[in-house]
Amino acid sequence: MSNRILAITGPTSGIGKSTVIELAHDYDIIILLCRNVEKGNDLKKLLEAEHQHITVDVIKCNLSDLANVMKAATLVLERYPYVDCLINNAGVMSLTRQKTVDGYELMFGTNYLGHFMLTHILFGSIMNSHDKQIIIVSSGAYLFAHLGRRNFKYPLRFNPIKSYGRSKLATLYFMQELHEKFSKDGLHVTAVHPGAVSTNLGKTKYNQTFGNLVYKIFDPLFISPKEGAKSTIKVSKNKNLYKGEYVQEGKITKLKSHGLNYYDRKRLIRETLASLQLDQFMYWEK
């Protein structure tokens, strides 16, 4: 295994782009899993012009469409024997109630379920690599939400703050489950903050007042893309220091009690497997 291989979602803008540009020094092959292929190809040209040693592959991956996620992951398996590091970076924030292709609330379906399915399919490839690393970009927004009972049903009522926070809380539980089950097998999994960069995403002329209020609440969590990438980059370069941890601004940060709720975590995993019609939580042939 001479080539180090990185796969990352949401690499064409914001935190993801800053992360890829910095980590291009450390990897031989970079797989850009992106919704916008045109932007992916632009980034590919930029990276290959700056780094003569790397190969960049652009694969369409729309995390709000599970069939597309499966297709993208299958292409990765067909083209590469392993993936050293998977960075689940992409994320959406919506101020209005929206559905994924599969009928889930958009933020939960994209930020959590899409990445869950991607990781599930690529898991054997990750575990058969040298680095065995998964980095999950979560967010301090988990503070604003508890798991609740209707995560896999389209919500009757919608609160963007709680819905976004719930999707990010789910990613924290996902990280903890991966660590509990597979750290003994050499998996290095870490969750990092932040999960959002300050933008006008979700704002329209129809909800501007409400949108300004929401972004004011989240403002302490919003930082520049370059700053936001620092934690991911630090964890990637020092994987042994951050196994099973939540990292904010490069420092291990203790989660609040509901972010460590064992019973909610186990319930989430059971319901996720049932909803995605999966037989077990991750699998690979040792």
From TrEMBL:
SUPFAM superfamilies: NAD(P)-binding Rossmann-fold domains. InterPro entries: NAD(P)-bd_dom_sf, SDR_fam. Gene3D superfamilies: NAD(P)-binding Rossmann-like Domain. Keywords: Oxidoreductase. Pfam families: adh_short. The keyword Phosphoprotein does not apply. This is SDR family NAD(P)-dependent oxidoreductase. It comes from Mammaliicoccus sciuri (Staphylococcus sciuri).
